[in-house]
């Protein structure tokens, strides 16, 4: 038994080949992306990066220089906030590509509509040793493991974007729904056994010791689960949130009401399990999920998050009462400047604030106050929070790995909140002595971050693969960096892939739409190097919140319009 608790018509294929260029090499490195609101724990030996020939970064700046830089950044961002210049980017094209990225992350048997044809079927027996079908779903990043926690968060964020901005997706809405359904179909499989949530497929340590295509992988496809004896309220409640949010997407807009009902019913069951058997999944499965996706912030926020989405999807009074009753106990106002796969606090407050701003529920007024405080912490010239900074080029950054996950998720919350404020004809109050911020200001800050990703930055580099004239060529991604099966039919073994990993050549397969981790400090620097995974690795949860941003700005390129 390999299950572990504790102890629409065919589309034209895309076969792109990246141009060739040279770069200094670096040795094999592993990942993952730890949140930044908690002290970073030392990585295990397998996860520790060991660089050889690393591209040097700029020296740390002095405190006086840093202060001068911050003044410049504020000036740049405020200038952007005061201008009404129409966008020059093709946000619609970027949206199409950002959705396409998810096809490159697919696991399982690929459908006839698959457009990234250099990918083929993979992991088609996942779960078989445990007597359960766990095929499908997404690889989270540049490896071949299926991590349930970030996959569920990815689904929740795609859903939220479609719920609030679905009309802006236009012709791309059906593809976005297909990307969402690829995740939710898997999550339904992972929750098909009552009282059990299957949370991971693949031994991360063994997988990260290899550099091989998903089509070739021969590392153990170990199945990990949480249950009553080995709780995982965080991953279970996030899964419930994903299913509940997706049920709204498929229920509305002439979708699939039968599928929506199934999603909501399952969400109710999974949330009840998460609440009844409380505990963090990294306590039950530490050796399997750490250091990759440890729960550093506890499970409490996911319980509130799951309840909030169930309330929005079902309108059942029990979830409204649950939220209010547990607001203090589960820490609704804690660490509200953070939002990502591990910390949902800011998202909880923004999501629930809609009820207040729409005049539907004064019961939740405290959540709006928390949301206002969070939004103010992001605004240049107002924010004094040490974890919210802007680079000289205007990029919001937080110390740690994979900075673009913060850029896209926090920018999405700015856009969502601006939407709620606009409909309520309201503004954000940033405390005594501070001027209130308008919804237009929030949208301008969000748009500035999107434009930075697409190329409006000091390097004039798009951080989305395949968008613009210059973009990363050597991303940290196994399938993209190794020859496709059609180009190289013979198997490429675990260690044989190291030659491709260390090659200075660009990746042979273009993972169109992938947004990499990007600059990770105040210098706006970016080494286009495969080994620097902190900056060169894409993830599903970087792209997920970006979809709605691109959709919105494709229809409203001037932030002053709404």
UniProtKB/TrEMBL annotation:
Active-site residues, Swiss-Prot/TrEMBL: 476, 528, 537
Species name: Sorghum bicolor
Top-rank EC class of the record's enzyme: hydrolase
Reactions that this protein is recorded to catalyse: Endohydrolysis of (1->4)-beta-D-glucosidic linkages in cellulose, lichenin and cereal beta-D-glucans
Domain Glycoside hydrolase family: 91-550
Record carries keyword Ligase: no
Family matches, as PROSITE patterns: GH9_2, GH9_3
Name the UniProt record assigns to this protein: Endoglucanase
Gene Ontology biological-process entries: cellulose catabolic process
């Amino acid at each position: 038994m390999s299950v572990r608790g504790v102890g629409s018509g065919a589309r034209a294929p895309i076969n792109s080949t990246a141009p060739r260029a040279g770069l200094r090499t670096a040795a094999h490195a592993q990942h993952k992306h730890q949140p930044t609101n908690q002290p970073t724990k030392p990585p295990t030996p397998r996860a520790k990066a060991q660089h050889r020939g690393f591209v040097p970064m700029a020296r740390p700046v002095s405190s006086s220089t840093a202060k001068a830089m911050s003044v410049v950044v504020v000036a740049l961002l405020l200038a952007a906030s005061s201008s009404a210049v129409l966008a020059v980017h093709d946000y619609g094209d970027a949206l199409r590509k950002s959705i396409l990225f998810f096809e490159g992350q697919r696991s399982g048997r690929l459908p006839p509509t698959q457009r990234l044809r250099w990918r083929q079927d993979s992991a088609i027996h996942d779960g078989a040793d445990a007597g359960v079908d766990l095929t499908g779903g997404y690889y989270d990043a540049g490896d071949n493991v299926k991590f349930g926690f970030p996959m569920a968060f990815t689904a929740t964020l795609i859903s939220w974007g479609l719920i609030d901005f679905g009309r802006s997706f236009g012709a791309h809405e059906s593809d976005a729904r297909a990307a969402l359904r690829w995740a939710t179909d898997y999550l339904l499989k992972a929750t098909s056994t009552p009282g059990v949530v299957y949370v991971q497929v693949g031994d991360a340590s063994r997988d990260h010791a290899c550099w091989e295509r998903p089509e070739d992988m021969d590392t153990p496809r170990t199945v990990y689960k949480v249950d009553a004896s080995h709780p995982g309220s965080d991953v279970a409640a996030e899964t419930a949130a994903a299913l509940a949010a997706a049920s709204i997407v498929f229920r509305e807009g002439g979708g699939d009401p039968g599928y929506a009902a199934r999603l909501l019913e399952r969400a109710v069951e999974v949330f009840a399990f998460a609440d009844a058997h409380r505990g963090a999944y990294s306590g039950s499965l530490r050796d399997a999920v750490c250091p990759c996706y440890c729960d550093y912030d506890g499970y409490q926020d996911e319980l509130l998050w799951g309840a909030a989405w169930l309330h929005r999807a079902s309108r059942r009074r029990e979830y409204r009462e649950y939220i209010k009753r547990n607001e203090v106990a589960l820490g609704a106002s804690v660490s509200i400047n953070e939002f990502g796969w591990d910390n949902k606090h800011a998202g909880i407050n923004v999501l629930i604030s809609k009820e207040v701003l729409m005049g539907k529920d004064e019961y939740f007024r405290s959540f709006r106050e928390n949301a206002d405080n969070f939004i103010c912490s992001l605004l240049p010239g107002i924010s004094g929070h040490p974890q919210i900074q802007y680079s000289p080029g205007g990029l919001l950054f937080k110390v740690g790995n994979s900075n673009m996950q913060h850029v896209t998720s926090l920018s999405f919350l700015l856009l969502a909140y601006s939407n709620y404020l606009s409909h309520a004809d309201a503004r954000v109050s940033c405390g005594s002595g501070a001027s209130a911020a308008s919804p237009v200001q929030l949208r301008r800050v969000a748009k500035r971050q999107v434009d930075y990703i697409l190329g409006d930055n000091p390097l004039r580099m798009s951080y989305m693969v395949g968008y613009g004239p210059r973009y990363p060529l050597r991303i940290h991604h196994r399938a993209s960096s190794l020859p496709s099966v059609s180009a190289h039919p013979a198997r490429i073994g675990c260690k044989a892939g190291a030659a491709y990993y260390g090659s200075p050549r660009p990746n042979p397969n273009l993972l169109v739409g992938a947004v990499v981790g990007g600059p990770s400090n105040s210098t706006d620097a970016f080494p286009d190097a495969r080994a620097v995974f902190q900056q060169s690795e894409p993830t599903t949860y970087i792209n997920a919140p970006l979809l709605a941003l691109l959709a919105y700005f494709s229809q409203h390129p001037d932030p002053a319009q709404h």
